[in-house]
Write a structure and sequence with these properties.
- There is one protein chain.
- This protein is an alpha+beta fold.
- It has 3 domains: 7-167, Reverse transcriptase/Diguanylate cyclase domain (Alpha-Beta Plaits, 2-Layer Sandwich), CATH 3.30.70.270; 174-229, 5' to 3' exonuclease, C-terminal subdomain (DNA polymerase, domain 1, Orthogonal Bundle), CATH 1.10.150.20; 245-397, Dna Ligase, domain 1 (2-Layer Sandwich), CATH 3.30.1490.100.
- It contains 14 helices and 13 strands.
- A 5-stranded mixed β-sheet has the order 5-6-1-7-8, sandwiched between helices.
- Strand 5 and strand 6 (108-112) form a beta hairpin.
- Helix 12 crosses helix 13.
- The longest helix has 21 residues, at 259-279.
- It is globular, with a radius of gyration of 24 Å.
- Residues 9-188 form the UmuC domain.
- The record marks 18 as: Substrate discrimination.
- One of its GO terms (molecular function) is damaged DNA binding.
C-alpha cells in the first residue's frame, strides 16, 4: 500500500457544469440567474448559476419554488446530450494528460499524480492541466491538491468557482478543523442534525469525540466519520472504466394509467437510446424497464437478449418487459428504459430474421436522424400528444 505521505491527489470539479455549458451556447446568460431543469412546475432544478444561488435556490429544488424565489431567472431546459458531449471532451483532455484518473461523475474527477512531483511538481502540473481544460473546452474548472481524495474534494468546494488550492501533507487536520461538519462528504441531513443537537458544529469538535462514542452513536459509519474528521482517507483513485449502460427516464406531468400513452412513450424512448447506441457503435445484451407509481414505489424488470442495437428487436423486448411488470394497474408517475451489458460493435445480420430491406431501412433512418435530428423522424406508434410530459426524455449513462 502507498503511504499517505507519498500520495498526491488532485480533485477537479467543473464549476456549475450545466450552467457553464448553456452559457457557452448562449453567452447572453453569463452573469445572470439561470435555472437548468424541467420546464413545468413538476420539474426540478438540475443546476443553477451562482447568481441564482444568492436567492436561496439549489439543485434538487422544485422548479416552481425556484421561480418564486427568483421570478426573473432564466429557465433553460436540460440538454443532457450537450452535457455528455462536453463531459467527454474534458475526460479526453484528462485521459491524454495524466497516468491515472477516476471520473467520479459527469463533471468531477480525481487524478493521482503520485510520483510526478519528482519531475514536474504536482501543483504546477495541476495548474497546467486546468489551463489546458479551459482552453480546449471553454469551461471553468476548480481544483485542489492534497494527500487524499477526501481533503482534495473538500478543498475544491472551498475555492469554487475558478479556484485552486494545495493542502500540503500534514496540514489536513488543520485545514478541516474550522469547517462545518456539513462540509464532510457523507454527512447528510439526518446525521448532521443528530450531531448538531449534541453541539457538534465544527470538524474540530467532531475529531475530538472518542471513536467509541461515535461508534455507539452511528455504528461503523461512526468509525469512518472519525477518520474523515481527522483528515484520514486511504481510498484509492479508481481507474476510469467504459460506460456500462445507457438509459432514459420520463416523468409525466399528470400521473397516468393510460396504457396506450405509456406504450407510445416507451417506443419513443427506446428509439432514442437505440439510435445513440448505434451512433456510438455499441450493442446491448440486456434491457431494463422501470416504472414508478404515484406513491413513489419503484419496480423494474430486466431481460437478457442477444446483442443488438436494432429498434425493432429492442422495442419488442421493452414492451414485453413492461407488460410483465405493470400488473398493479395503479397510476404511474415515471417510466424508464435502460440498456446494460454494452459492448463495442455493430449489429450482426441475422440471416433468419433480418432482411436486406430492414438493414437498409435502419441505415437510411439513422442517416436522416444524424443529418436533421432525431425529433424529425420517428415511428408513427411513437407519435403522441406531449402535454403530459414534463420534459424531453432525459438520457443518462453509467
Amino acid at each position: 500500500m502507498v503511504l499517505s505521505s507519498a500520495r498526491h491527489i488532485t480533485h477537479m470539479d467543473l464549476d456549475t457544469f450545466f450552467v457553464s455549458v448553456e452559457c457557452l451556447r448562449n453567452p447572453k446568460l453569463k452573469g445572470k440567474p439561470v435555472l437548468i431543469g424541467g420546464m413545468s412546475d413538476r420539474g426540478v432544478v438540475a443546476s443553477c448559476s451562482y447568481e441564482a444561488r444568492k436567492f436561496g435556490i439549489h439543485s434538487g429544488m422544485a422548479m416552481k419554488i425556484a421561480k418564486r424565489l427568483c421570478s426573473h431567472a432564466h429557465v433553460v431546459k436540460s440538454d443532457y446530450e450537450a452535457y455528455s458531449k462536453y463531459s467527454r471532451l474534458v475526460t479526453d483532455v484528462i485521459k491524454d494528460s495524466v497516468p491515472l484518473y477516476e471520473k467520479a461523475s459527469i463533471d468531477e474527477f480525481y487524478i493521482d499524480l503520485t510520483g510526478m512531483d519528482k519531475f514536474f511538481g504536482c501543483l504546477k502540473y495541476s495548474d497546467e492541466l486546468k489551463k489546458k481544460i479551459v482552453k480546449e473546452s471553454g469551461l471553468s474548472i476548480s481544483y485542489a491538491l492534497a494527500s487524499n481524495k477526501l481533503v482534495s474534494k473538500v478543498a475544491t468546494n472551498e475555492v469554487k468557482p475558478n479556484g485552486q488550492l494545495e493542502i500540503p501533507f500534514g496540514n489536513e487536520k488543520t485545514f478541516l478543523s474550522p469547517l462545518s461538519i456539513m462540509k464532510i462528504p457523507g454527512i447528510g441531513k439526518e446525521t448532521g442534525y443528530r450531531l448538531l443537537k449534541m453541539g457538534v458544529e465544527t470538524v474540530k469538535t467532531l475529531s475530538e469525540i472518542p471513536v467509541n462514542m461515535l461508534y455507539n452513536l452511528l455504528g461503523k459509519w461512526g468509525i469512518e466519520l472519525h477518520r474523515k474528521a481527522n483528515g484520514i482517507d486511504e481510498t484509492p483513485v479508481i481507474p476510469y472504466r467504459e460506460q456500462k449502460s445507457i438509459g432514459t427516464e420520463e416523468t409525466f406531468t399528470t400521473d397516468t394509467i393510460d396504457v396506450k400513452l405509456l406504450h407510445q412513450e416507451l417506443v419513443r424512448m427506446t428509439e432514442k437510446i437505440a439510435f445513440e447506441l448505434r451512433s456510438q457503435e455499441k450493442l446491448t445484451g440486456c434491457v431494463v424497464v422501470k416504472i414508478r407509481y404515484s406513491d413513489f414505489q419503484t419496480e423494474q424488470k430486466q431481460m437478457t437478449i442477444d446483442y443488438t442495437a436494432f429498434d425493432d428487436i429492442l422495442i419488442q423486448k421493452v414492451k414485453e418487459l413492461f407488460t410483465g411488470l405493470y400488473t398493479k394497474r395503479q397510476l404511474i408517475r415515471l417510466i424508464g428504459v435502460r440498456f446494460t451489458d454494452l459492448i463495442s460493435g455493430t449489429h450482426q445480420i441475422d440471416m433468419f430474421n433480418d432482411s436486406q430491406e430492414a438493414i437498409k431501412l435502419h441505415q437510411a433512418m439513422d442517416s436522416i436522424k444524424k443529418q436533421f435530428g432525431q425529433q424529425y423522424l420517428m415511428r408513427a406508434s411513437a407519435c403522441m400528444d406531449n402535454k403530459n410530459i414534463t420534459h424531453a426524455p432525459k438520457p443518462y449513462k453509467t
